[in-house]
Each structure stands twice: as C-alpha cells, then as structure tokens.
Amino acid sequence: MRIAIVGTGYVGLVSGGCFSDFGHDVICMDQDPSKIEMLRRGEVPIYEPGLDEVMARNTAAGRLSFTTDLSEALKHADAVFIAVGTPTRRGDGHADLTYVMAAAEDIARTADHYMVIVTKSTVPVGTNRKVGEAVAAANPDLDFDVASNPEFLREGAAIEDFMKPDRVVVGVETDRALQVMAEIYRPLFLREFPIVTTDLESAEMIKYAANAFLATKITFINEIAALCEKVGADVKEVSRGMGLDGRIGNKFLHAGPGYGGSCFPKDTRALARIGQENACPMQITETVIKVNEEVKRRMIEKLLDLVGGSFNGKTVSVLGVTFKPNTDDMRDAPALTIVPALVGGGATVRVTDPHGRHEGEALLPGVIWTDEPYTAAKDADLLVILTEWNAFRALDLSRLAGAMSTPRLADLRNIYTAKDAKSAGFEAYASIGRKALQG
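^ that's the sequence the OP posted. Answer follows.
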C-alpha cells in the first residue's frame, strides 16, 4: 500500500515510521521546510525511544520519505492520514479543529483519485462527518471515503504500542474503506492483535472515553493518597491491594503529582465540552479535571512544609521536569505548576532532566540547568524528585544528602522510602500517600 501522512508531529512520525516498517510505502508531508530538511538528514525532532532507528531503517530501504509537496505525497496514495495537532481551544476547552479541517480541504483540492481519508488526530465526536462534508464541498467530483483511526500511543513506549497494540480501532462506513484499512493493518491482523471495526462516532468516542477513564484512575489514587497521609495508611500498599482485583487492575494506580502530557489534559477537557454541548454533563470527568489541578497545587504545599513555610532564599534542586520519563514532552507537566511556584516564591531553582532541557528552557524561565543530580544537589536546601526517570531510581542518597546544605527530600514519585532517606542522612523526607520523616 502507498500511504501519505499529513503532519510530522509525534503521531505522524511514529505512524509513518511504523507503517513503513510493515512494508508499506509511506511519505510524510509537512508545511515546515526546515522540519522536512531535518528529517531528510535523518534527524528526529522529538525524543521517542527507538523512533530514530525505525526511521533510519525504512528511509534507507526506500519505504519512508518526506516532502513539503502535498501533491507528491498524494500521488498514487491508497490512504492519507491526517495527523495534525488538535490543541485545546482558548476560552471554551474544546479541541481546536482548525488544522484538521484545513488539511482535509487541502487534500480535497489536491487529490485526483480514490483514496481513504483517515483521521488519526484525536477529534471530537462528529468530526469525521464534518471532514467528509468539507472534502465533498471543496471537490464535489472526488471519489473518497472517510475513516476514523484514533491513536493509543504512550509517549516513551510508542513504537511498542504501535507494533503490539492492545487493539486497533477503525471507524468506517463502506466495505471499500474497510478493505483498504484492513490491508494497511494486515501485519497486525495476521498476528491476531484485536482490530475493532465500528462506526465513525463510536471510534471517536472510544478514544475520549479510554483517556478519560485512565485519567480518572490516576486522579482517584491521588485522592486516596491524600487521605492516606491523614490516616497513616500507605498508598503503595493500598494500590497493590486494589490492583490485585482483576476488575480493577494495577495499571495507572501509582500516586504522584498529577497527570500531564499531550493527551489526558486535552482530551478530558474536550470530553467535558462535548458533554456540555450535548446537554449531557460529564460530571466525573469535570471533577477529575478540577481535582488534578488541586493535586498539583497540593504538591507546592508539601514542599513549603519541608522548608519551613517559605521558599524565599532557599536553593531547591528539581530532578525531572517532563510529564513522564522517556519523553521530552513538557505539555501540562506538573513541573509547569510547581517550578514557577518555587521561582515565584524566591527560591533559587536548579533543574536536571535527561531530555527536558530543549523544551524546558523556554517554558521554565529563571531556573539554572545542570547536567546531573549531584551537581544540582550541591548546597541545596531541598531536593525534589518530580519525574521518575530511570537515572533517578538508583541514586546514591548518602552522596546527595552529604552535598546539601540542609538534606531534605521530596520524593513525589515514591521511588524511595522514609527508611532509605533516614539511613542516608536526610533530616526530612516526604512522599505521596505515605508517612513522612521529619527531623
């Protein structure tokens, strides 16, 4: 099959690279000439483990290429995937469909043969029908079908998720479109990965419902963690006891400083807006959004308690600022709430992150970037673990404590224990949903 991808962001590049790894001929199109030149040189503009190897392998094999010319991308294409951004629209929380609809209209004006126009971007229910209407209006003579094919990629594990998915969701209306999509995903079908074929609206809803449910699990355990701190329970033991129930499962039951990233914040807000527009309020989702913001603010109070009620004049070292490990994504990361509060409170803030500096320098003004944790900890009054990178899971706590002016540790990912901290020489230790250590 010949596949065109419109958009070379996270979803577009992962999808394009993996489709070409299936053996399809893929051409990725973007309007940004500098980005296309970068990709042609073999440089990947995002950090995603394994993506550079996949792209290099398939570019060398001639199955993956890049262009700024939409007509070149669509030439002989069996399907074109729209993989552009749908950011939260200012003012109302809805997904901004400007880029999706512009891509659809450009495709309509450029295409000259039958193809399936596939929406890969996360879009509100009803969008694919609007895409079909826009294409038909822009080019009434074009023979085409529309399909919905939402992505379910975890940043940091996207290649594995694409190649070994829990499921692939395909929303179609015609047998012709279904045959094209079935051929595209034939390698996964042959390995018996579930392919869920449904209507357009159900495919769109599956994406939002899944992400809202996962965000709910995260927020629920964060609320339980706050209660654990009040009553003397250990949220890690509570999570384990809950997760062993087959009806619940242990995934997404890890307490922390709140969810962030490119999907959960945007998709929960969009689902809440969809509910409001259809006079069917998503009350649980709306509460999840509210509580998640409160969780982030509660982290600031926790840090204030560790330093005696004021950040002014303190040196605080922060380990990790991306919203999760194995990505450089800073979108809606807890760090964007917590670090500015530290700086605004008068603290000198040192930051280290394996891959967060590229985006973080613009998003976190007023901080000092360091290359590794031990440099960051020198003469510090507080050390904060904010992202659970592997590089932070086996730190020499004694060395860190010995380098600090006042050894206090805020472990906001529950990597260590109060016992670990005490034996290493920390005078104070706080985590999420567990007993604190105060000197």
